[in-house]
Structure formats: C-alpha cells, structure tokens
Design a protein that fits this description.
- The protein is of the alpha/beta class.
- The protein has 4 domains: 54 residues, no CATH class; 166 residues, 2-Layer Sandwich (Nucleotidyltransferase, domain 5); 62 residues, no CATH class; 90 residues, no CATH class.
- It contains 16 helices and 15 strands.
- The strands form 4 sheets. The chain has a 5-stranded mixed sheet with strand order 5-4-1-6-7, sandwiched between helices. Strands 9-12-13-14 form a 4-stranded antiparallel sheet, with no helix packed on it.
- The radius of gyration is 35 Å and the shape is extended.
- 23% of the residues are buried.
Length: 470
C-alpha cells in the first residue's frame, strides 16, 4: 500500500467501503430522452408492454435513430421507472397452513408425457388432491372433467387418507360452482357431497389460480416425478390401464413417504369418515327412440332393439353408463368422452338390419357396423364382386358374428382374404358357418413363412463374382 493512501485511511475513521460515493451521473447521453414521454404514455395505456416490443416500435417509427445494441439501455430505464414511478404490483401473501384444515383439488392433463397403452396413444387426465399442511397427495385416473370424476377422485382420496379436512377448495369448474348465478354458490350435487363429508366448500376468485396454489404447484412437481420415473423405467408404454394405475400408486406412495411426520400431525385434526361413500352416479330417465338409441349427456348409445319405445334409467359413472329397466341392469356401456359422439353396437340392431338390408347403405352410423378392419375389407370386396347383393351378404356375415362370436368370424375372414377368396361364392355366411361347424384350426396371424435367401444374389450386386476387390 502506498504510504499516502495509508495516511488517508488513518485520518478518516470510515472504512474504505464507506468512502465510496454512489455515481449519480451518466457517462454518455441518454438516447431515449426525446422519446421517453411517448414511451411512458404507451406503458401507462398498456402496462404489459415489454421493452423489446417498445424498442422495435421506436426503430420502425424513427428509422436509423436507434441501434440494436441500445435495447439494454431502454430495458434498464424501464426497469428503474417501473420500480420508482410505475404502477403498483400485485402482492402475494405467504399463507400459514393449519393442520387438518384445508384440502385442494383440481384436474390436470397428462398428454404431454406421451404415455401409451399397448403402443396406442392414451389421452387422459388425473384428478389431483393435496392437503395443504402436510402436502400429502392422491390422484385418480379420469378422462374428462365430470362431476362423477370429481366425486370418485375426492372420495377415493379421503378414504385412502382415513380422515376428512374441515374445508375443500376447488377452482371455478362449472361442475361444482354456479358461475352463472348468485342464488346458490355451489351446484346441488357438489353441496350434497360436501354435506356428506361435513366439509365446507371453497372456490377461488375468477382469474386467480394462485388461490389454489398448493395443488397447482403439485401438478408441476407430480408431472416431473412421473417423467423421471418413466425415464428410469426406460419405457412410456404400459401393457394395460391397470398396470399404469399401479405405476402411479407406487409413485405416490414413494412421494408421500417423506411427508409422514407432518401427516402424523395432521391426522390428529382430521374429522372421521362417514359410515360409507356417497354414490357418485348420476341418474337420468331417457326414452329409447325408434333407432334403438338413447341420448345421455349429449351422446348417443345403442341398446337392444326390444327396448324401443320404453323408458330406461341411465346411471352415469365416471367411466361407464349402466342401463336399467324394470329394476334390472340390461346394459353396461363405456362412457364416451366429449359431446356429440355416438357408440352403436351392431348386436343390438342386426336382427332388423338383416330384414332391411337397403337401410345399411346410407345408415347414419354405418361406420360403427364394421367391428374390425377385415369386416370393412369384406364389404368392399363384396361391393366389387356382387354390388347388388353386397349389403345383404355382408349383413348375414355380421349376423353370424353376433351369434357365433366376433373373433371367430374375424379369424375366418382373415384366412379367406389372405387366400384371395374374395368372390361372392366364398365370402358369404354359409361358407363361414361351414368352417365354424368343422372346427378346423386356423393358422395364427403371427405365423410368417420367410423364404431362405441365397447369398449369391448379393455377390451379383457387388460385381458378378464371388470375390470383391477394394
């Protein structure tokens, strides 16, 4: 250290860091002085404008005046202005969670993880429940944001937990919240669910997803955990939905293991479960129309033609629809996802279609009457070889599938198509019935005969000789 510097330090009781003065002057002129008022007016009108957007607008309005490198100057000035003179920012208040008080739930899509079942795309959702104090969580697989999915998911979580929090908070989903009316805060079915478990329902404010912040944050962390587990598994494909559900169950068990201490504390304050679960089914009385169809939740389903004209009860669950008549369950159908869709089972109407083959050609739901691709190939072949009788011949084959078994008939059709037997004399119900009666063993679809390849052909490609020169 220079002696003069040392003498200065000795004379001044302040530390060297305290002697440094803040710089309050600019080293170069501000290039935005002339346009700053214009920029500020734009920000006042649209507070969400970014510095880059404003800078590009200035470059277009004043060509050649602002170089690309000056954007950092504008960004720093905007940042300083927003902090000293700009609009007030929203304040987020950290919440102190009380044990046993609140559980939050929401639906989340899982499509981004590209999970498949049997190598087929598997679009689905999870109903996600979280206790805000201990962060204990549970999920249920579902396919749409329906009340049945919410009810099943919430009840499954509570019974797995073994207790009930005082309050349950959800977002403003229409299946729980009356968004279009102020007369009643929640829907009748959601109120009944809360009343059954003696919970107080809560809803977030419009446009405030942060009020359901615990479950929203857990969405992100859960998907990240699922993604990591899939990478360790080295495959995103599952053999069945049951296998995928077991994968999720084991993962949630692992995630909840680290929360056992806080959960043990929370369990002391949870309310006991009621005597039993509340039925999640939605019941509707519908009439079977002349097309042997019922319309449930704005989708069409076929039932047996003998029920035409009768009123049946549809019991709507999260994944199935049960059809009851005279106190007996007559059908159980897979519930369609979405609206304006249809599911027609040829077994329900084939007896009348055979009597009215002319109706098949322009039937609104004709595509539903091809149970496999081979049935469609047979109909196309019949239209080429016997266009006049194609509908009748195909419907007779379909009737045989309904009576003798779809898979058995499908195997015979596969063999006939592989053998090139596509004429009307071969592709008909009598021939197929004869094969069924014989009980002959059909070759499996996976039996492939690969002819032996002569390696001499490769030598010919390389020059016609047995030796190859480099």
């Amino acid at each position: 250290m220079d002696p003069k510097t040392a003498r200065e330090y000795l004379r001044d009781p302040r530390l060297p860091s305290e002697r440094k003065e803040d710089r309050k002057w600019r080293t170069r002129d501000d290039p935005f002085t002339e346009v700053w008022e214009e920029v500020r007016e734009q920000i006042d009108a649209n507070p969400g404008l970014e510095a880059k957007t404003l800078f590009e607008a200035l470059q277009r309005k004043y060509p050649g005046q602002f170089a690309d490198g000056q954007i950092r100057t504008l960004q720093r000035r905007l940042k300083r202005w927003r902090a000293t003179e700009g609009p007030k920012r929203e304040v987020f208040f950290a919440q102190q969670h009380v044990a046993g008080r609140l559980g939050q739930s929401d639906f989340t899509h899982m499509n981004e993880l590209n999970i498949t079942i049997g190598a087929q795309s598997f679009p689905h959702m999870l109903f996600h429940f979280v206790l805000t104090f201990s962060n204990w969580e549970a999920v249920s697989l579902c396919y749409s944001e329906s009340f049945e999915s919410l009810s099943d998911g919430l009840q499954s979580a509570l019974w797995e937990l073994g207790g009930v929090p005082l309050e349950h908070r959800t977002d403003r989903m229409s299946l729980a919240v009356n968004n279009g009316s102020d007369e009643r805060e929640f829907t009748t079915r959601y109120e009944a669910l809360m009343r059954h478990y003696k919970m107080t329902g809560q809803k977030i404010q419009t446009g405030r997803p942060n009020e359901n912040g615990d479950v929203e944050q857990r969405h992100y962390r859960l998907k990240r955990a699922v993604g990591q587990a899939l990478m360790l598994r080295d495959s995103r494909d599952f053999g069945s939905v049951a296998e995928y559900k077991e994968f999720l169950r084991l993962l949630l068990t692992q995630l909840n293991t680290g929360r056992r201490e806080r959960l043990r504390t929370e369990m002391q304050y949870l309310r006991p479960l009621p005597a039993g679960r509340l039925e999640s089914l939605k019941r509707e009385r519908v009439k079977v129309d002349s097309g042997s169809l019922i319309y449930v939740d704005r989708n069409a389903y076929s039932v047996h033609s003998r029920l035409i004209g009768e009123r049946v009860e549809a019991r709507i669950a999260a994944e199935t629809i049960e059809v009851w008549y005279a106190g007996n369950k007559v059908e159980e159908l897979a519930r369609l996802r979405g609206r304006g869709k249809h599911r027609v089972d040829y077994r329900h109407i084939i007896d009348w279609l055979v009597r009215k083959p002319g109706a098949f050609e322009n039937y609104r739901y004709r595509e539903e009457l091809f149970p496999t691709s081979r049935f469609r190939m047979v109909w196309d072949a019949l239209r080429e070889t016997a266009p006049v009788r194609a509908n009748r011949r195909y419907l007779e084959i379909l009737e045989l599938a309904a009576k003798e078994g779809e898979s058995r008939v499908d195997d015979i059709l596969r063999c006939l198509l592989e053998q090139g037997e596509i004429g009307e004399g071969k592709l008909n119900a009598k021939v197929i019935a004869g094969v069924l009666n014989e009980g002959a063993t059909l070759p499996a679809a996976t039996n492939i005969d690969v002819a032996e390849v002569s390696l001499a052909s490769f030598d010919e490609l390389l020059g016609g000789g047995s030796e190859v020169t480099e």
